[in-house]
């Protein structure tokens, strides 16, 4: 009896496996490279779903940038580039253009980008910013004297077309390769010269109306009130010359024209502006020439500047060859 009791007391109960040991033993049957995800490492479903979306957005942005940087420019890249720039620059555009003027400017910008790329567009943008800025100079004074531009200087489609007609023609000639590769530089020169001419005209007129001390009628040298058609002032003429030099410099910096061509653009712009002043003094607002409004005179002015620049460049080349 004592022996049996002693044996019963020495028998040990089998160990009860703990949850941890059970887990380890059960995991031993899994492959070695199988990892049981910890709750803290589990990614939310939303994060997993956002990865493909982010990749698609990045891909779309990459495609857009490739399209914008197309060389040579295409109509698609021109439209897309203008759309982005016009959206970003809308506050500036609204300050200088009416709604219909913005629409006309969009067509001009698209055509310019297609013909001459981003460098040509930057040239036109520079013209627009400077031209808008000088139009706003002493606006209250100009309004009081009755010589300010309408709509607080916000120009409409007629003004946009009148200021860019010659440039648009040069752009179309460049796009369709008129005259072959040899003439492409000529159309580029004519394009730059047209905007140098128009910016010089705008600056000389607006600065002359704002600061001109004495204004002379160009045909008779008679002293006339500021803002008179065909009138010039020393202050306005000098400012217009500086504006032409500045825009020609931008054109050269962007690779649109060479240094000699920049000089040609400045000279052509001043000759054209003098001719425009004669037309304004002799014909504008005269009987039989009521149709000759500011927009029509602008077309004549910039066309003269563009044609003169092309002609001067050809004459210069002929002399150099001789």
TrEMBL record:
InterPro entries: DUF92_TMEM19. The keyword Ubl conjugation does not apply. It is found in: Membrane. The chain crosses the membrane at residues 83-108, 120-139, 160-183, 236-255, 296-317. Its main location: membrane. The keyword Transmembrane helix applies. GO terms for cellular component: chloroplast inner membrane. Belongs to the TMEM19 family. This is PREDICTED: TIGR00297 family. It comes from Prunus dulcis (Almond).
